[in-house]
């Protein structure tokens, strides 16, 4: 095949040019995003129910929802949590579930259930979680002093949001911090009493005045007209003129007995930017959109907003494209330095400028054509797929060097230029194919990991397979053609200046050390074997993390005040917290109380706040974080708070709200939470002393009203009247709504803001005898501690404790006995079990990878023992990587693990080619020498033949990665663990390929023979 193609250079050139043209076209259409569009198999249902207790939300809302969703296809787990005024149900599905269909099915079931839910409950929100739901940037909207917040809210909702949604590539624009305008009606209680009226007459007058007659028409001869009441109100002035009639028939304008005006509605949450209250707009991208093109459009749009709306200040924060740009920048750096160092190393080792130029052409060609594979497999350009391309670039250079070196060697043996190109490629073709297959055998099975890890590895596996497959095509077709083209003019002169003085000096040193090692070959082999377990044991000394620590200048403070406070008090506390830092931050923003985001799938309550800080330096950040810790500890000892680095998209994707190890129990008799009085005694008997209370055991103070039904009956007051009065006094009571051109303005009853005991004494009900009776006569109250949350799963309501012990399973039997003694059904749940599952999966997948590796190599070498040589080289390379990670203080994380795969791919390549060369030389020499002499000669010469490509691939890879070690910034922080793994592994791996492979071959072949 190589001969056939080399004889048609014009046709081959045209094919590659055509592929590159198509690749450029395809590249321009490929979506660019931070992460692959992963369907996280979770759906969250959020409930907001004003003035409802956790028990009421659980019983009236969440329990019916759980029952109706129990039969969903692919449902793996279901968790619900009810708090004061809010609740949520989190559904987890099996991976592979069609989440589009699941989302539709959940919405259908919620719609069918609506009639069985409380009538005043807003429809529960159904949120589907996807990596594209992570906002790419946040736009801060801050009204300037003197401008109405509600007007700016309308501007944000009706204008700014729509203008951002019109940008190409935007899928959704979400808003938090909006404030709505309402018409507040405040009854004048003394005036009403003087006229013998009650607030109920005012409410009835407004409802009648705003009534609409739907669908009623009248006839006038041959014409038909729709009937409309002329009394419908539009503004506070209309309401103020409505007539109010007392029971005695006295009619007066409403403004005589009540004050009517526009006001800002009571809110459950606030958004702060610095010390100023405002709104935040989060921008989400479409799956097919290019983030690096979309974010600049958002910046341009905000610049226009600043000109068009001078009454508002705008700022942009938390730009997630920084991480993507860092990944693209790293790839560009790798290409640039990879090409430069490859050129330098090849020139130093060969003294020939043509070779580096050939490799310099092959690198971008291979990379560009790889994007065609991205297009056909629907893979976006993201941080994960880019890291796969970077992973494959090392092997691409490796393959190019091996092919070019082998062609040069064939020319030295006296073949013509054309025949050298053909023979040079054919000789290493099977070995290079095997090396690519073995790399894929190590890497591709990781795609079958369950969970998000497997989904992420899919993009990386496709990108690795793409660039390795393309690199083989380039190495077998384009490189020999370019070699023939570049060296055609020098064919008559022969091969000159191919080995530099430096390489000849290195070759001399290699031979000297080879002879010394083989003089004591048994001892040398034993030392190598001992180093394998010792090197792998170093993993026990390494810190294990999910992602490498990234130098971040921002931090997030998550606070739960753990006190029954309102949102206004929450806001005041956050402002005091911001004041503690005295403006020593570049940016700060806070979401206080319940968040209005449609896509917010976390928990939010009136008592919670999230504060984001961006600092100018790492030192300032450390100093101020310490100050915040001290302030919160001293001023709010009851508060739960956590100060962490601000999460980027990776953190948001990998973070889980699953506890490490949770012991759950259910009351098998009552099917309800165990009462607080009994629970405290049970926890004293709990077998484990060190634990923390789960959400279902956390308490908060509350006021409990109890109605005296006997007195209500005695005075002839209906219980409904009392309940209605309590709602008017303590709730957000909506009289009616004004609906006009899609805009809804609620009319709300505003009552006196005072201590609840005073309100009970000062407000009255009228009995059947016509006398007034204070509410305090019919309502008694107590201060009680109640459970803060009600938690439930598929099996019903549960309570739990959280264990942080490193070996929590040692207490299993004792905890089960404790449950049986107290008639509690005990179960265990947590990340601990999921991690063990993942580890077992990983071990199984790695065993499959090793078996695949063995089968491929056995087929390549046609031998059952020789593949073991390659397999034994792998732990030595891993040990080298561990040594460098330990010396540099680097953790074992996702990026260093990817570095291990990169390094092992190159090591496997070198070992396969070395063994393949030994086998070929041994077969040639067996006709001239004895078996032992042929073996010794083949081992010695194979080392000399493969020394140059092994050294060049290792040195070029190491030197190309070195700039990352000395770079700063987010991209360098991410890539540095990968670089340390590769450098450590290749440093040891090069020595292994040069000396351990021939030693192991000598040991195993003697046994084989």
General form: elongated
CATH architectural grouping of one domain: Up-down Bundle
CATH superfamily of one domain: Multidrug efflux transporter AcrB transmembrane domain
Level of helix content? 40-55%
Low-confidence stretches: none
- Secondary-structure-based class equals alpha+beta
The CATH topology of one domain is Multidrug efflux transporter AcrB transmembrane fold
Instruction: Describe the sheet with the most strands.
Output: 9 strands, antiparallel
Task: Quickly count the helices.
Answer: 29
Quote the average pLDDT. 81
The fraction of residues in strands falls at 15-25%
Cα radius of gyration in angstroms: 37 Å
CATH class (first level) name of one domain: Mainly Alpha
Report the strand count.
Answer: 30
Report how far the terminal alpha carbons are from each other: 35 Å
Task: Write the SSE topology.
Layout: H1 2-6, H2 9-29, E1 39-48, H3 54-69, E2 75-82, E3 86-93, H4 99-113, E4 125-130, E5 137-143, H5 149-165, E6 170-176, E7 181-187, H6 189-194, H7 199-209, E8 217-220, E9 223-226, H8 236-240, E10 243-245, E11 251-253, E12 258-264, E13 269-273, E14 276-285, H9 291-308, E15 312-317, H10 321-350, H11 354-376, H12 383-412, H13 417-443, H14 451-487, H15 501-519, H16 521-537, E16 554-560, H17 567-580, E17 587-593, E18 608-614, H18 618-635, E19 640-645, H19 649-654, E20 662-667, H20 676-684, E21 692-693, E22 699-707, H21 709-714, H22 719-730, E23 733-740, E24 743-749, H23 756-762, E25 764-766, E26 772-774, E27 779-787, E28 790-793, E29 796-802, H24 812-821, E30 824-829, H25 831-861, H26 866-888, H27 894-925, H28 931-965, H29 970-1008
Parallel strand pairs: 7-24
Antiparallel strand pairs: 1-3, 1-4, 2-3, 2-28, 5-14, 5-15, 6-14, 7-12, 8-9, 10-11, 13-14, 13-17, 16-18, 16-19, 17-18, 20-29, 20-30, 21-29, 22-27, 23-24, 25-26, 28-29
Helix pairs in contact: 2-11, 3-4, 10-11, 10-12, 10-28, 10-29, 11-12, 11-14, 12-13, 12-14, 12-27, 12-28, 13-14, 13-25, 13-27, 15-28, 16-26, 16-29, 25-26, 26-27, 26-29, 27-28, 27-29, 28-29
